Structure formats: C-alpha cells, structure tokens
Amino acid sequence: MARLILFNKPFGVLSQFTGEAGQATLAAWIPVPGVYAAGRLDADSEGLLLLTDDGGLQHRLAHPRHKAPKTYLAQVEGLLDEAALAALQNPLDLGDFVTRPCQARGVDEPAWLWPRTPPIRSRKAIPTSWLEIVLTEGRNRQVRRMTAKVGLPTLRLIRVAIGPWRLEGLAPGAWREASPPPADGRSGRSGVRGRPPRH
Question: Which residue among the candidates 42, 44, 54, 96 is catalytic per the annotation?
Fold first, then answer.
C-alpha cells in the first residue's frame, strides 16, 4: 500500500532531500526511506507538504490537471480593500500567464499560528493584513506574484490545506502518516500515525 505523509515544512527548508552545502532539506526532518515530495513549496514558504513513495500517486497529487485546491494564508504589507480582493478573485494578468479565478477573503491572524523563525521584517508605519487564498493551479510563486500585482507584497506565506488534507495539529517540522486516496481520487482519512514535533 502506498504511503502518504503530511509534513509541516518550516521556513527555509527545501522541498527535497538533497541540496547544496548549508541548505536545509527534508532529510533533516523525515527519516522515511523512499518517499518524495508530491509538488513543492518554496523555501521561504511554510506549511503543508505531501510526500509519498508511490510514483502514480505523486503524479496525481502534483499535476495541475487534477486541480486539487490548495489553501494558503498570506500576511501582506498594506491594508486589504475591496478593489484588491476583487482583483485577486478574478483572472489576473501576471505577464507570462493569466491566473484562473480563485477564492480570496480577508481573515484575522490565526490564534494557532506559530512564530516564524526568523521573524518577518515589519515596519511600524506600515500596517499588515491577512488573507486566505484558495487556488486550483500552482504556478511558481503564484500567490506572492498575485499579491504583489495588487500592491500588497507577501511577507509570510503558509499553505494550510491541499485537497482534503489539512495542516491542523502539526507543529513546524512535525509529520504524520495519512491514508492515501483510492485510485478514483476520493480522499482518504488523515492522521493515522504521528511523530512529535522537533524543537
């Protein structure tokens, strides 16, 4: 049976098991042989990363054709207004491609959110806002490019869900196993085995 691992990737960690000298990789966090990331998350982003040892499942989870919705929380510089929100929700021309319509809404900073290490650079004179964005595509640095396009540079980005799998209950650097989805693409159960967070 295929293995599926849910991992809360910390800031600064590459979504791969090898890297250049001095780069933090998955090898320091996940001592499970034969698994690979299904998709990727930029080193300067945090949150949910799926890993599996099944090549077919890896393809299904990562390929944009399957349109698994990905939910992100973004802390942005500036105040989110209705015009910016509408621009994010509708097709947005980023130069090399036009985004699909997506869900976007303003939210409060989550009470459960951990402090980032290192902390973001904040400027007292400039307020920040939080928003939730749900995408069905995953172009390179898309959320950051979208918020920058509407004048709200992303300061912090956390992926909190991929399809039915959620980050809930996972501290940074922690992982747990979940039931993989059946071949027809319906979701499996999450969280059947766990590992304590690293400190």
Answer: 42
What digits encode the pLDDT tens for the residues 147-182? Answer: 999 999 999 999 999 999 999 999 999 999 998 887
Does 71 score more than 70 pLDDT? yes
Whether residue 92 contacts residue 99, with contact meaning beta carbons closer than 8 Å, is answered with: yes
Query: Domains of the chain (ranges plus CATH)?
Result: 4-65+166-194 (3.30.70.580), 69-161 (3.30.70.1560)
The vertex-192 CA angle with 66 and 61, nearest 5°, equals 15
Asked about 54 being catalytic, the answer comes back as no
Let me know how many helices (H) and strands (E) the chain has, helices first: 3, 10
Instruction: Give the CA-trace dihedral at 8, 11, 117, 121, to 10 degrees.
Output: -130
